[in-house]
Amino acid sequence: MLQSTFTAVNSMKFRYYVARRIVTMLIVLLGVSLITFSITRIVPSDPARLWAGTRATERQIEQARHELGLDQPLHIQYYIYLNDLLHGDLGISMHSRRPVVEDIRDYFPATFELTNLAMILAVAVGLPLGIISATKRDTKTDHAVRVFSLWGVSMPVFWLGLLLQLLLSSILHILPTAGRVDPFVNLESPLKIITGMYTVDSLLTGNLSVFISTLRHMIMPAFALSYSSLVIITRITRSSMLEVLRQDYIKTARSKGLAERTVIYKHALKNAMIPTTTVVGLTYGFLLGGSVLVESIFDWPGIGLYAVGSTLLIDYPAIMGVTFLLAVVYSLVNLTVDILYAFLDPRIRYG
Amino acid sequence: MKKKRLEKFEMRRQAKIGIAIVIIILVGALGAWWYYQSIPGAPSTDVDTLVFAVPSDPRSFDPAVVLDDSMRQMAPMYETLAHVTPEGKAEPRLATSWEVSADGMVWTFHLRQGVKFHDGTPFNSSAVKFNYDRILTINQAGAYMLYVINKTEIIDLYTIRFTLNWPTPFDYVVGAAYTLYMLSPTYVLAHETEGDLGRAWMDDHTCGTGAYQLESWIHGQQVTLKKFDGYWGGWEGKHVSKIIIKVVRDPSTAEIALKKGELDCVYYDLVPYDKLAELKKDPNLKVEEDRSFNTLYFRLNCKKPPLDDVKVRKALSYAFPYDEARDSIYLGGVEQLQGPLPFGFWGHDDTLFKYTYDLEKAKQLLSDAGHANGGFTLTMYYYSGVDTVRRCVELFASSLSKLGITLDARAFPFDELFPLCVNPDTAPHISVHNWDPSYADPFDYLYGMFHTDSIGIFNWPFYSNPNYDSLIVEGNGIAATDKDTAIEKYKQAQAILVEDAPTIFLFQLDYFRISRSWVHGWQFDPYYQYHIDYYHIYKEV
Questions:
Q1: What CATH number does the domain containing A232 carry?
Q2: B14 chain-A contacts, CB cut-off 8 A
Q3: Residue B223 is inside which H or E element, if any?
Q4: Number of structural domains, chain A?
């Protein structure tokens, strides 16, 4: 398979495929920037006044308007906005008075770290469950898995979070209630922040106590976050496996005398993975947008909290910054998924 | 045959692998857990560190711009010249004594000696001048409190003299709970960029005279403070040396963490009223209640018909179910206001008329005003995010409907609410407002909310009564030298407000201190809810 992948990647068709995807992505991002910009200019509220403060005089408000560039015609404002964007300047948050990029640098790594763990859980549990469910179709195991999946789809994430907190923290005292790390552990051996992801930074600096404390704090929110993705992956894997197992080439493989394990893992799974990859990509992109509910309950200061907070405070630069960031993240994830397709299914390369 | 045996072998092998994986995970988890247990981490009963939960992250640590709940994290680092007791007496803090001239216009302050800022700079009169000038230049937050200063003179290292534009009890002003804090001039100037007076730097850094210093601020999570060894107040007696102010957003999380002992204290607005009864019963917790000077009002727009008719405004004052709101929404944690000033505040008049819930009187007044059976709609704007306020508005709406009045109520975040309510074109009939005194003086309430000059700021009713205006200004003029006469004038002014009814005086709120039973000394500042006196808090199991 590696050999064929190698030749595939080097083929013109593949490169053309990737290039087309990238161009599409850039057009989408441009569109997002235009829409976000327009919406924030249409909403009836005066950002200059909000910036100047509650006791500002008319002159101070006019000065703020000029500082924020709001007295320019709209298309000039958009041009300035786009120009800043290309230079990585997302503006200054009206609430924190810091560059939005700095705010995002504080909040996004937390979400990134949590989402990664959630997705690992979702795939590590969801995928095998889906396979088992498909191969043991209509048995008690299958039914158990399907009930489990139904719970996942029906349960509100904040309720699950609260239940976990109640059970594991309050009643059983196994896990801490909320936060990213135990403040006392952090006082004993303070964590040096490099990437903003506590797990990575603690490993990089050899701070084992913080690493373990962070993991303990991450388990519940990651699980709560992963549950719905987990079950979607289970269901999709199950149905696409069932679809594939019905195919003629599977019958052929079996009749050739191949072990069942080889049939399932080597032949069926690879093809069944395509819809699953789509789902994993979509949910990963979605989860990277943060979940304000999970973040509130577990005091996980992620991008979800920041986005909702900024919206409630009508903090235009922050809102536009976060929206654009999430659009970029989502587009990149989808691009990666599209490229992965090409590896999984050669037919798509030529599509 | 062979295939079946092969398959069974395969399955058993798979099962073995599965079990092996599960065992490895369990052993790993157990190992991690055991390792974690052996790590020294102070238990929450560590008497040296206080863990305090608040619902939001600060915006800034610069006192010159902080007007909101950022005070909770900012205030421990800074001090003002004086400090006002709940009874209304101004006591020494960074100033040890002061004199005022007979006409109340010239104030001379003697400053405390031997006080150092966190960076070692000595505190003296030039520091005071520097800070007040800085506050006025930045001109945000409570800078308006210093507009009264005409001239500042440094008499000597520890004596400073203020000449005012008009007579006012200036000792209350310098004892204000926000803005007028002392920052180290050397520190601020050392971190100045482009003449900004250190504005950008002081957002995340502190240098004051207070008992605690900023150790770290992890945005969105927590602020850690550590004690300042050189604090002039000294460290005799019981104190905590570290304070972790954690951001906890969800009330249920706060409750669980408090019960587990992960938190020592919880800020009251993280606990809904109906939870208080349950928490009071818990032997590990302490729930203490105090009356505050925080007040809630429904402001009535005197320029917008039909509320331009005082009879209609009075009718509305009779139409709010005060007792029902107090009992069902606040569960007894409030008291109905008697006039605009809260109980316990100096200048409050115990004999003032108090409106009651009386629909018959309301109907009578409406009919006198020519609106028998109501028949009109009123718009009402209130600030979002506070559940109890919303419920008060809903209660009011249902009561008004009994009078044939429809209430069109809408919620806005405060930042949006403010510009709508100060603009006569967009202002609604009724707005909801809540007041904390800037400084310990009835003038703060009476002027800030009802004087003609306050239109465009917090005189949302657009109330303008020259009689009233001159009365309170006179009162303020002699308050420093003849408090009793000032009080008389304030009482007359309050009576005018009750009669003119530009506002429905709703409630005075109680504040609750919720903590573990090992927390002691948590005193309460009724003037400003965000001002927490950490220095006197200690833990003793």
A1: 1.10.3720.10
A2: 261
A3: strand B222-227
A4: 1
